[in-house]
Amino acid sequence: NAGVTQTPKFQVLKTGQSMTLQCAQDMNHNSMYWYRQDPGMGLRLIYYSASEGTTDKGEVPNGYNVSRLNKREFSLRLESAAPSQTSVYFCASSLSILVLTFGAGSRLTVL
Amino acid sequence: GENVEQHPSTLSVQEGDSAVIKCTYSDSASNYFPWYKQELGKRPQLIIDIRSNVGEKKDQRIAVTLNKTAKHFSLHITETQPEDSAVYFCAAGPDYKLSFGAGTTVTVRA
Question: Measured between CB atoms, does B19 come within 8 Å of chain A?
Answer without folding.
Answer: no
